[in-house]
Amino acid sequence: MSSILAIIFIVLYTYTLTTTISVLLLENRNPAKSLSWVLVLLFLPILGLILYVIFGQNMRKQKLVSKKSFRFSHKNQMIFDLSKLDDYRSTIKGNQMNLIKLLYKNNDAQIYPFNRIEIFSDGKTTFEAMFQAIENAQSHIHIEFFIFGNDKISNQLRELLIKKARDGVRVRMIYDYWGSFFLSRMYLQSLRDAGVYIKPFLPLRIRLGRSKINYRNHRKLLVVDGETGFTGGLNFADRYIFGNDLGKWRDTFVRFKGSVVHGLQQLFLIDWYFVEGKMIDDPKYFPQPNRYRKNIVQVVSSGPDTDWEVIMQGISSAIMSATKYVYIHTPYFIPNEVVQTCMQMASLSGVDVRLMIPEHSDSRLSDACSSSYLGQIMEAGVKVYKYHKGFLHSKAIVIDDFISIVGSANMDERSFNQNFEANAFMYDKRAAEQLRKLFEKDILNCEELTLEAWTNRKRWQKLQESFARLFSPLM
């Protein structure tokens, strides 16, 4: 009897494995990623199938959150299309104009002009600015973060949101189910009891063959009264002020006023439509914006809800638009072939390309994987700096004192393909100069790697890094 059951199991497993591999191949993914999953499926029986069901499925075509199913009334939201670019042709170069058009066409990223842009580079001032905006809220507060840490700073936020909700301000809050997994029931219930509308993003549901555990909402958004908006890479956690084992976390955040707040508002309400199933299009959420400096900002979102790898395409196009310099902050550097090639080509063309990563991150596997890419870009002339004053968690790029990119997306496969991310692409000289100066200041707390020293590192270290790189398409 046991032998018959064993034969039945082998037949069923072989059929399932063959079907899964066939589906994987028919999706025509990147060959390296497809091969990695095929090897996992073949050499890790049962476990490989479980890993594929959880982490390997391509949800992009299934549209977990479809923007095309959600459209705001044009009478409520200010729409700024490509025709607005005519006013900027004297200040925007052709290759920069192509970037703007790309993001408009591949992501419907509207053109938002005349904004006030303020850059924050440390946790203390960032939280103070957000708390001040929340304290001054009169109509509504929309807040969406990957991590709410259930610690001192998160509880300070909780108390403030409770106060505003009891004062009659409409508060909506989205938290990622896994990113904020350790939020206590008391924390959540106290917010609900005070009248805060709070929803988790993709909570755990056991559905055979339809797992979405791997798709997380990594966005960081705060919109107050439809007039003030924030975005960047920081989460609500004490480590940005008090530090942890890695030291204090260094991040970059942006506060906006002006028309671009409509873009942040739209993105939040799209996500709210997904978690709540309720469309919100009241005109009060899109008040007439004030006019500030002459500039342009595009709010660019990506994830399984987009047709293209939008942020990856935008970053690649921005790098290739450079004529003078490209300075990059990222905590995790696991680039795909497109981004890596763009960095190499820009550097070989004479552009000053600099990459800053943390000396140590919160993932040893990511550190080893990142290291395997450094030699190839340094051979092309890219300068690499390792930040040692705490943990560099900033996701910021500045190019030619004009283009700035700040948001939630890391330079890795997870951010390019799997997470729901949001980045602000800013075309503004003042903001770019400020980000460049911050990068140059951060260099003082870095060690610059040399190609000679990197080439001569120990063989066991190279082997460890090369092994970790095998998992890069899956990370």
Structure description:
The protein is of the alpha/beta class and 475 residues long. The protein has helices at residues 2-26, 31-43, 47-56, 94-107, 123-135, 152-166, 185-193, 260-276, 310-321, 337-348, 364-379, 413-418, 429-443, 451-455, 459-469; strands at residues 112-113, 116-120, 140-145, 170-176, 197-201, 221-224, 228-232, 249-250, 253-257, 296-302, 325-329, 352-358, 383-387, 391-392, 396-399, 403-407, 421-427, 446-448. The protein folds into three domains: 2-58; 114-294, Endonuclease Chain A (Endonuclease, Chain A); 310-474, 2-Layer Sandwich (Endonuclease, Chain A), CATH 3.30.870. It has 15 helices and 18 strands. It starts with a helix and ends in a 6-residue tail after the last helix.
CATH topology of the largest domain: Endonuclease, Chain A
- CATH classification, class level of the largest domain: Alpha Beta
Beta-strand percentage range? 15-25%
Distance between the ends: 42 Å
Poorly predicted residue ranges: none
Shape: globular
Find the count of extended strands (DSSP E, 2+ residues).
Answer: 18
For the sheet with most strands, the description reads: 9 strands, mixed
Strand order of the largest sheet: 1-10-17-16-15-11-12-13-18
The CATH architecture assignment of the largest domain turns out to be 2-Layer Sandwich
Instruction: Work out the radius of gyration.
Output: 23 Å
Helicity, in percent? 40-55%
Q: Give the overall pLDDT as a whole number.
A: 86
Structural domain tally: 3
Class by helix and strand content?
alpha/beta
Q: Name the CATH homologous superfamily of the largest domain.
A: Endonuclease Chain A
Oligomeric grouping of the chains: single chain
